[in-house]
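User: Quick sanity check before I run a bigger batch. Here is a single chain. Can you write out its predicted 3D structure?
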Amino acid sequence: MLNMALLARASGNAFQYSNSWFYKFSLNCICLKIYHNSPGILASYLQSSVNTRLCGTGTAQIPTNKQKYVTYDDIMFERRDQARRSILVQVHSQQSSSELYDYCSQYGKVKEMHHYTVKDNLQFLLIEFSSLADIESINSVTMHAKGNQGLPITSPIVWFRAATKLKKGNSFSRDIPLQATNAKLFPSKEMIANELYNATSVSDQMMILHDLTKLNDTDTRLRFLTARQIETCLLGMFPDISVLPFGSSVNGIGKHGCDLDLVLRLQDDIKKSVHSRLIYHTKVVADLNERNQTQKVMEIISDIMTQFLPGIASVRRIFKARVPIIKYNQTLTGLECDLSMTNTVGIYMSELLYLYGELDWRVRPLIFTVKLWASSVQLTNSTPGSWITNFALTLLILFYLQHRQVLPTVKQLVELADKNDVRIADGHVDCTFLRDISKLPASSTKNDETLEELLKNFFIYYSDFDFATKSVSLSDGIPIFKTEESNIYIHNPLEHGLNVTKNMNVPETERLKIEMRNAAWLLESISADRKKAWGILSLMYQRLSNLASLNLEHKTRMVEVSTLFRNPQTAEGGRTWNGPRDSSNVTVANYSNDTEKTTSTIIKSNERHEVDKGNSRSGHRQERRRR
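Assistant: Done. Predicted structure follows.
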C-alpha cells in the first residue's frame, strides 16, 4: 500500500496539467497497471480522481454557485428514470464488459456501464439503456435457466452466461461507455489520511474529506435500482406503486457505505382522474386499525422478499418501533436497507436537507467533518441508544449556520412557498416550504467565513450553549425556551412538537459538551509543523495533549483533560496509566496503527456516576458485594 501511495504521489507531482488529454491518458495507464498488479482501492480512486480532483496539488476545488439549481423532485425523477432503464448483470470479470456490450447492443442502445465488486468477489456491470423501449427489448430475450431450482421471478438483476460457441477471430468492441471500474472500492483510511496530510489548509482538508467519502454516481444508481427491484416485484398488483429512497442516500450528505432508507407507497397521493365515476373495489380487513393493517401488509411483503427476490437476505421485521420497518441486506448491490410504509415525512425531510445543502457550498463539507469527528470520539453510534444521532447532529449544524446567517430559517422558506410547494405527509403533517431556491431573495448580510472558521466557531458556539433551558429550533433560527423537560431539545423542523434528541441521557449530554469544548481547544492549538499530523487529522485520529487556552467566556475547564483518557491497556490488563501520549510525535506513517487506539474512554460526569479513582476503591466495592 505504501509503494502504491508513493506511486500515486509521484504521478501527481509529475503532471501539473490536470485538464490536458495527456494527463488523463497517463493517469489511466497508471491505474490500469496498478489494477492488474493489485486490484485494490488505489486504482479505483485514481481513476475517479481524473475528473474530480486537481493533480498533485493537494487542493480541493471550491464549487461555484453559477450552476443552475436542480430541484429535489427533478433529481428524484431523473434517478428513478435511470433505474427503470437499467439492468444489473453479474459477470465473470471486468473483462466481460466488451462482450456484454456487444450482446446488449443487438437489442438496444447502451448508454452507460458501471463495474463493481461485492463480497466473495462477485462482479457486476450496471447497464443503463437509452430508452424504455430498449429495456423492453432486452427483457424480451432474457430467460430463466433450464433445470433451475429457483422460482421463475422476473427482476432487473440477471447474469451473463458464457457463450456456447465463439467464432474464431471474433473481436469485441473496444470503445464502450464504461464509466467506472471497481466503483465500490472506496479510499482506505490510509489514503484519506495521506490526502489530508498533503492539503494546504484545514478548509482544504474538509473539502477533500467530503470529496473522498461522499456517495459516487455508481453507488447512487445502485440504490435506486435496489428500490426498483421491490417496485417490479409488486407492480402487477399495485400498478401505481413507488419505492422511494430517502435520507442520506438522496439528501446530499450520505457517505459511502451508509444504509439505504426506503419508503413504499402503494399509490400516488394525487390521482389523475380525481372526478372519475369508476371506483375500484378493494378489500377491507375487519377489526384492524390503520397501524395493524400496515403491519399485516408489511408481513406479507417481507415474506415475498424472503422467498422470491434474488439477493435479498437477513430479512428482519421491526414493527414495534414508532415507524415499523423491514430491515434486510441486498447482497448483490452490497447495501443494508430499511423499508417502511408510513414515513413520507422522511421524504420531505430529505428534500429540506438537500435544499439547505444546495444553498451554500460550505454546508456539506462542514457536516461531513463534524459527523466524522463525532464518530471518532464515539459520540454517535450505528445502533440506537441514549447518544446523539447523526440526524440530530446535522440539525445542530444547520441551526448553527442559521445563527451565522449562512442559511435561512424554515419559517422563511414556508413564507416564500406558493401553491406548487404544498405537501401534506402521513398524519396530516404540513411539509410545505419553498422548493425552488432560485426564488429565494438575496440576503442583505453576507457570511464569507472559511470552512476552518466555521468549524472552530461551531465547537465554540455549542460549548457555551444553554441546553438546560433553551431548545434548538430550525423553524425560528434562534434558541427558544424548552416546552418540556429534556436533557437536549432539538425540534423536528417539520414536526415541531417532536424532540429528535429525547433519547439522550445525562451522561451523553455532558459528554457532548465536553467533547465540543475539547475540540475547540484542539483546533486553536493546531501545530503548523507539517512533518506531523495536523489539522482535522489531529482532531479526529489522535489523543488530546498540550491544549492551548481559548478565549471563551468560561475560564476553567469542565474537567481536567488528564482525567478524560485512559490507556486501553489499563482496562484490559490492569496496568497503570502514565499520562497522555504526546500526539505531536504521531505522524501519518503510523496513522493506520494509531487509528484503532485513538478513541478515548470518557468518564461520565454527573451526580449518579462518580469518577473511578483507582483500583483500590473498585476492590472495596467488590468486597462489599461479596459480603
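Residues 1-58, 542-618 have pLDDT under 50 and may be disordered.

User: Great, the batch can go ahead then.
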